[in-house]
Fold these 2 entries.
Entry 1:
Amino acid sequence: MDTLFTWLIAGSVLGFFLLRYWLAHKQKESKAKATKERGALFSEGPRAQHPRVSLDACIGCGGCVSVCPEGDVLALIDGKATIINGHKCIGHGLCAEECPVGAITMVMAKPSSGADMPILSPEYETSVPNLFIVGELGGLALIKNAVNQGRDCVDTITARLKEQSSQPQSAWDIIIVGAGPAGISASLRAAQNGLRALTLERESVGGTVSKYPRQKLVMTSPIEFPLHGRFNKTTLSKEDLLAFWEKVMQRADLNIHTGEGVESVQKQPDGLFTVRTPKETYIAKAVVLALGRAGTPRKLGAKGEDMPHVLYRLIEADHYTNQHVLVVGGGDSAVEAAMGLAHQKGNTVTVSYRRGEFSRLKDRNAKRIAESVANGKVKVLFNSNPVEFRFGSVAIEVENQLMELPNDMVWIFAGGTPPSDFLKACGIQFGDTAAPPRHEESAQLSTR
Ligand SMILES: Cc1cc2nc3c(=O)[nH]c(=O)nc-3n(C[C@H](O)[C@H](O)[C@H](O)COP(=O)(O)OP(=O)(O)OC[C@H]3O[C@@H](n4cnc5c(N)ncnc54)[C@H](O)[C@@H]3O)c2cc1C
């Protein structure tokens, strides 16, 4: 009798915990379904690289869900890994590495989903033979991806050059356009491989990294860095990362022209490339485009947007105190800037966002901005659009009502216009990366 009673108690306790687990699981699943449906409603599917899950192969272990540093790109729905926040994927690829049955592959979004991506081969070659695209311009964000692609693409070019018996002395072996992480890595590998290489950068070395806010913590993965070997630091300040690159670059005798932007890249009938800048015209056997996707900041089209107090990038938040600030945008850059500015003495900070809620933020930023709003540090105007910037004030339409706010400084974070026109003018085709370019002559570099 006693034994039966003990079994009954144990069974009830176990049943209670199983029921709780099942209810929590169901609650999580219905939340994930709602997020997925809302994403579809707002067309917030993947914009660039993202996981593709083979539902037949997925065993529903959830390893991919928990390993993602961005939090909730994937969720388990009906026992299968499903994309619920595709737009949050920035290409870590850890889900694919974690999957024990190989059910996940990283793929690019189709242009129809807003990605506007050039077609690339697995070697990062465009539809124009010997014209390559590496780094974020090809669709994969993150420093580690940029460094890996810059390095590997130069190895492909080096192998092709070695196959050539006669080499023209007048042309550069390789011209690298852009000196962000991808361009630096490509330039160093070119030096390491003994190529005649020239790097052209329209601003200064460092790319997007040099424009991060001061002392921003950079997160990366261990990387094999040309001329240095394995770089194991995974969290460091922007300043430390730039200093590290500077040190490695000093070891190599690089030809880097800063302040020299490339205006056009044209393939000549002899197979060589003409690379034009406002200063000079260069000839190269292969060209690597490492332009990033930041492009030029997207404008709102509001009146007064060209005034000097309307800015598109914030590096030193602590330079701005006792100001009425307006931050326009609803992405991570906008809310990070708003919170940084709100911490400076005497600032009042308002965020204007055209949508009704923040839906694309990293979990950490979503929590922090909610706290800042709750404790009155930041005010958010959803469903709003600035109409006119003036000295001393800004006119904003909020829920179809026009209002005027006192204002000294404006930061706009509306994304950038990627250099798609530039790429199209180079002859590069855009489209679905499921069909990488095939060109017979791509294994040959011009020897003329
Ligand atoms: C706010 C923010 C925070 C981020 N934090 C992280 C992080 O913590 N960890 C991480 O891994 N990634 C992070 N990223 C992403 C990372 O910075 C990018 O993925 C990376 O910089 C891409 O490198 P890239 O070399 O492809 O392009 P970029 O770094 O954008 O470099 C492109 C370079 O090309 C130059 N260029 C463009 N056009 C021309 C032209 N016509 N002629 C000559 N030069 C040209 C540009 O001036 C620029 O220097 C962050 C991005 C942002 C915006």
Entry 2:
Amino acid sequence: MEIEEIYADSLKALEVLRGVIHKTPLDYSRTISGATGGNIYLKLENLQRTSSFKVRGAYFKVWSLGDERKKGVIAASAGNHAQGVALGATLLHTKSTIVMPEVAPLSKIEATKNYGAEVILYGKNFDEAEGKAVEISEETGKVMVHPFDDPKVIAGQGTIAHEVLEQLSKKPDIVIMPIGGGGLISGNAIILKKKFGDNIKVIGVEPSYAAKYSEGLKTGEPVNIKNVPFGLMDGLIVKNSGKYTFEIIKDYVDDIVKVNDAEVARAIFLLLERGKILAEGAGAASVAALLEGKVNVKGKDVVAYITGGNVDMTRISNILNYELARSGRIVKLSGTIPDLPGWLDIVLSKLAQAKLNVIDIRHDRITHLIEPGKALIEVIVESSAPEAIDKVIEELNSIGVSFSKIVP
Ligand SMILES: Cc1ncc(COP(=O)(O)O)c(C=O)c1O
């Protein structure tokens, strides 16, 4: 594999992509800088066309096929690659076929169709869909566009690094980005290391539950995941290490850190609340690593890639509720009151006096879990002041209503 060729291709890709995709903002984040002690800049690829960086590599790969693209292209993906290939091909007047697992979310299927692809639903998981895509490619001559293990795709993803250097107009000390199959970090690391060598650190972030490259680098041998887990960082859950990407990551990436879903949920919440930035799980992984102090960034100029923003609204609401509950801004209280008229009103009045907004309430008298003559109440309240809740609990307890927080 020619590293020089990938570097030269990344410059070509920069030209080819100009005017086709967005030059996404590179924004200084006061919040994350304040929280970490570094100067943190966010490269907002969640604002890219198709809401992820994937269109860079996909478009450049399809463009590079030249006349061969008349045969059409095919890919297997349930995620951002699907949309990247679909849009890339359509913009280049090329037919695309995307094989998605039967369980792919409807929103992703619709989005991929809307970008112009023919979508085939096949198999229970990504591997089965990929097998089908290979079969169709062999039968029809449609060209496979691999999501990461392809030098052209790698070069296309690398264009982010060129853009960042143009936008920052100084050398960053650290550039941090997520790793799934490794195409993104391979392209970017080649460019950053070629320009600055040891004077720049390229750091990758993997999910703790799918950490192929962290494991593989320990032994020097590529690792494949046996049981593909489910998690928030779905874009980073990739079963097999790539042939090209493993070698590049081994030679060009300085360190790989791991984050879990709770850490990523916190990062998504903070990005949305403070920065008004909507990131998906994979897209928020680098910020999670920074906020959790997994990389020492004190006094350093750091660029973190927010790689995508494709996240279902149901999942966002789940993440927001999780974080609100974890941080004590939504609290569940449970207790028993005498089963007599007026007691529910007493509880609600106390909560209202303490300015605790009731979101939900459940009242259960038909249960053997409490003493006879009592009623069970569960209340969910919103609170910006956790002390107010402790005070109300104390007051209620003092008048014979035993209340406590379900989750402290
Ligand atoms: C949002 C997002 N971030 C990061 C990645 C990881 O990219 P790569 O597979 O090239 O490592 C992906 C891959 O699909 C992604 O969708």
